Give the backbone structure.
Amino acid sequence: MTITQSQIDQLITLVRQAYPGWQNFNHPPFVSALIDARQNAAGLMRTQLARTEFERLLRQNLYDEIINRLAQVAHATNLLDLTDPTSEDLHILYADTVNRGEFCHQLFNLLYGNAAIEVRLQHYLNFVNQQSSELNTWAFPTYFLFLVHPDRELFVPPTLTARYLTWFGLGDTWRAQPTVAAYVKLVAFVQQLQRALQSYAPHDLIDLQGLLQVAFNQPQQPLLSAEKRSEFAALFQKFLAAYPQTAEGRFHIANYQSNRLEAERNYAAIVAAHQRGEDVTDRVLLQLLPYVNNSRNQANGAWIHLAPTINGDLRKWFEASGWTKPADWPDACNFFYRNAGAAERCAALAAK
């Protein structure tokens, strides 16, 4: 992809919305708010877990000390989710199923091994997936790679990354779970962006990550104009006054609860299958998305819904439209499965 000057100009405009007068990466308020803490964390990593120190701790089997120092470095910035020790970003440090010694050796190899990053990252991902695919997240490994090698490695926070890739027209390259190929493409893209921003004097990828965070953490402009929002509000009020009192409206209202209960049962069964190590891709597609009530969908065990969006074979529909490739479905379904879990937990809290 070629990054255009127009995109660079728009990107700088987004940054200046947060930092008026921003001229380059040495802008004092920008450095103070975003860069200093990350550079300090990189410095902490160089003292607490530099290669020679990490090797010494491994030789002495001081795995708990390594874990403690990793946690200390994690808390040196606000980049990771640190709400509690079981939060997704740090879960691997405290998971009972993970052998701490094996994990520490695998992480050392990822950060300091002699092989190419593609090989080191693949070895690490293989190890994590052998423990549990739920521990295979973007944030944890890339955070420490980023701090050890800020000149060439990239921190990948999922929401922010998906947002800026989409803005640059590269949304189809995003993968919900880490893969070597996706990481290599991400790094190549951000390095290309770094070159396009040379006139603004970036120092390393810590600067680039800070810039992207500022630009794409800003509230986005509404998708609808004020006029369209007003029109929608008027139409919605018209709908409220008429549709719920119709026979069809009353039927929908009466049956929403049964649709929801069926979805809850489907989700619980999928969770149980996932915990048994089963591939739940097909079940996620069929039983967590709303299908039209027809004999084929009933026979396939699909979730029949009052407000359906899918008539038949979702895979064929999306692949024929060029929206998805066959190899993408496991990642897409895993992402949807995890977000369905978050929605289910939020609904449970709201009901209390």
Remarks:
- The two ends are 49 Å apart (CA to CA).
